[in-house]
């Protein structure tokens, strides 16, 4: 019985492993499900990681604040010490504008170079990298660190 089970799995495994699921777009083109599942998985991992980091940061800030109060530092000074750094809102807005514009340009280039394949990922990687480069050059020429 074991041999039959092992042989059945050995014969059917390649069929199951090479089975690909496709999504049909409105214009009857097919897109591999990997183009949907991989970015969704990366997004979920990012959100979970950001949540865990936020919880850890909050707990450590609370610990540091309580130790500062135990040492005799006033609450007002401890709050000023632990306040988040004020960021330049204009630079942050420009960064997101450049990132979204680069992503939009990359998606437009991908649309005009169909079918979707590995070159689509390369186009998106280069457009994102160029967006970061534009933001870096903006910071460099405006004297910000």
Please give a handful of descriptors for the protein shown:
5 helices; flat; 2 domains; 145 residues; 75% helix; two-stranded antiparallel sheet
SSE blueprint and pairings:
Layout: H1 2-17, E1 22-24, E2 30-32, H2 34-70, H3 75-82, H4 89-112, H5 118-141
Antiparallel strand pairs: 1-2
Helix pairs in contact: 2-3, 4-5
Explain what you see.
The protein is mainly alpha-helical. The protein folds into 2 domains: 84 residues, no CATH class; 60 residues. The protein contains 5 helices and 2 strands, in the order αββαααα. A two-stranded antiparallel sheet has the order 1-2. A hairpin with a 5-residue loop joins strand 1 and strand 2. Helix 2 packs antiparallel against helix 3. The longest helix has 37 residues. It starts with a helix and ends with a helix.
The parts where pLDDT drops under 50 for at least 5 residues are none
Structural class by SSE content: mainly alpha
**Percentage of residues in DSSP E strands:** under 5%
Can you summarize the main beta sheet? Answer: 2 strands, antiparallel
Output the helix-strand order: HEEHHHH
Radius of gyration: 25 Å
Mean pLDDT, all residues: 78
Could you tell me how far the N terminus lies from the C terminus, measured between alpha carbons in angstroms? 69 Å
Number of separate strands: 2
**What is the quaternary state of this protein?**
single chain
Enumerate the strands of the largest sheet in spatial order, edge to edge or round the barrel.
1-2
The global form is: flat
């Amino acid at each position: 019985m074991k041999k039959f089970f092992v042989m059945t799995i050995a014969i059917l495994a390649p069929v199951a492993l090479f089975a690909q699921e496709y999504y049909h777009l409105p214009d009857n083109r097919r897109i591999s499900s990997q183009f949907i599942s991989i970015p969704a998985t990366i997004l979920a991992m990012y959100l979970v990681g950001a949540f865990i980091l936020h919880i850890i940061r909050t707990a450590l800030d609370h610990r540091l604040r309580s130790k500062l109060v135990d040492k005799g530092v006033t609450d007002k000074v401890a709050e000023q010490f632990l306040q988040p750094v004020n960021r330049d809102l204009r630079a942050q807005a420009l960064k997101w504008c450049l990132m979204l514009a680069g992503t939009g340009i990359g998606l437009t280039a991908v649309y005009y170079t169909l079918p979707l394949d590995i070159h689509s990922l390369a186009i998106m990687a280069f457009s994102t990298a160029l967006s970061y480069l534009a933001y870096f050059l903006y910071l460099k020429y405006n004297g910000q660190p």
